[in-house]
Amino acid sequence: MRGHHSFFKRNGLLIVFMSFMVLCWLGQAYTGFKESKQERYEKGLPPFSFTEYLESGHFIQATFENWESEFLQMGLYVVLTVFLFQKGSAESKKLDGSEEVDREPKVHEKAPWPVKKGGIYLKLYKNSLSLAFFLLFIVSFFMHAYGTMKQINEEENKHFTLLQTIYENRFWFESLQNWQSEFLSVASIVLLSVYLRQMGSPESKPVDTPHDETGG
Are 148 and 160 in contact (CB under 8 A)? Predict the structure, then answer.
């Protein structure tokens, strides 16, 4: 069937969202550069060139502060939906009985290679989605700390280490203000998908489904 659909048809969701991401990231870089220039002028510091700005703590911190919260949100969401439920939500499994995602994998001709290999490879593959998100979260967490450290050292003429930065209230203020917004967004779709519908979206139940029916 692959030959019957264009590349965009097969990958449109990813392409569009990655395009939005790149456009917003470029906008962030440009506006952040302008903001940094003004801030450094007010502090009596020489301005960065645009290339220097992309390597500065200001840009690194702002980028990874947001990525960190996204990966934490998705990692927790993937794990918690394994065993936690919300009656009536399209984002939850049914309260009773097992579902297709709960069954043990079977070896067949087109199964992914870790399924065929078995053992530790299969065990890791069974949890690979959450592991990937948590790994991305850890990398983003430390890159956020690194960016904050650079920004403090660049603008305040200090010599903070990464460990000192992680103990700073400033670092946790930056993190927690994003984490709470991500948890709110997940809670919102979990609750709103009980009562509201979007025809054609896999994130919604069918329009005529009763409110109290769990599952999509």
Answer: no
pLDDT at 17 over 90: yes
Cβ density class 66-82: b for 16+ within 10 Å, e for less: bbbbbbbbbbbbbbebe
Under 8 Å between Cβ of 174 and 65: yes
What's the mean pLDDT in 23-35?
97
For residues 64 and 18, give the distance between their C-alpha atoms in angstroms, rounded to a whole number.
16
Quickly count: other Cβ atoms within 10 Å of residue 55's Cβ: 11
Of 94, 33, 87, which Cα lies nearest the Cα of 58?
Answer: 33
User: Which residues are CB-neighbours of 12 under 8 A, at least 6 positions away?
Assistant: none
- Residue 216: the pLDDT is 54
Distance CA 81, CA 93 (A): 7
Q: The tokens 């029916």 sit on which residue?
A: 213
Burial class (CB in 10 A: 0-12, 13-18, 19+), 65: buried
The residues, ordered by sequence, that sit 6+ positions from 129 with a Cβ below 8 Å of its Cβ are: 78
Contact 33, 48 (CB under 8 A): yes
Residue type for position 70: E
**How many residues are there in the chain?**
216
Tens-digit pLDDT profile for residues 155-200: 888 999 999 999 999 999 999 999 999 999 999 999 999 999 999 9
What's the mean pLDDT in 91-105? 90
